């Protein structure tokens, strides 16, 4: 977050708003978003498929006709044969890499792939960084543990699986509460 904040402050300067035209100037922030989508894909099993015939085979496993198929996008993004230190959050691994390859090279498929790839991918890859950049630029974020201390290692990063993936224990933030009280 500190790296992203330095990058955003450098480009946006004081007393202004983050604009969508700034996005190409935030390579680190873009890498943070891509790394987040790799480790925490919001749709961990994509949208279920159905095998339409009985002659399908995947890696030698026969797939019965009408079987419901879930693609584990969460596991693909953490495949140790593809990713170095797969469990580590390292945005640097994406610096200099083109996000246009998401969904095409199948190393990570947070938006699915092929004919039924998420049609909102282009919008999402602009709106999410814009929103995140605005939040980082406009607020100080200090996630606290139950003892009201900021200890990054204490953050519970467990996830609950379902049609969408979410944090089991929400991040509490004074800033979030202040922002909420301000608006409501
Ligand atoms: C970070 C944001 C988003 C993520 C991670 C995401 C992810 C996905 C995934 C994984 C699928 C299933 C693809 C598959 O099964 O192969 C999907 C489908 C879809 N998404 Fe998204 N999506 C996002 C944002 C959006 C937005 C902004 C829109 C629309 C404006 C959108 C519209 C759709 C639609 C209509 C489908 C169904 C496509 C079909 O079945 O043919 N998504 N999305």
Question: Could you describe the 3D structure shown?
Answer:
Belongs to the cytochrome P450 family. The chain has 184 residues and is α+β, with helices and mostly antiparallel strands. It is built from five helices and six strands. The strands form three sheets. It has a two-stranded antiparallel sheet with strand order 1-4. A two-stranded antiparallel sheet has the order 2-3. The protein has a two-stranded antiparallel sheet with strand order 5-6. A hairpin with a 2-residue loop joins strand 2 (56-58) and strand 3. The longest helix is centred in the last third of the chain and has 18 residues, at 121-138. The protein is globular and about 60 Å long. The protein starts with a helix and ends with a helix. Bound molecules: protoporphyrin IX containing FE.
Bound molecules: protoporphyrin IX containing FE
Termini Cα gap: 27 Å
Low-confidence stretches: none
Helix content: 25-40%
Family: Belongs to the cytochrome P450 family.
Pfam family, one: p450
Keywords: Heme, Iron, Metal-binding, Monooxygenase, Oxidoreductase
Protein name: Cytochrome P450 76C1-like
Layout: helices, strands, pairs:
Elements: H1 2-12, H2 27-39, E1 49-50, E2 56-58, E3 61-63, E4 68-69, H3 73-76, H4 121-138, E5 159-160, E6 166-167, H5 174-183
Antiparallel strand pairs: 1-4, 2-3, 5-6
Bound molecules: protoporphyrin IX containing FE.
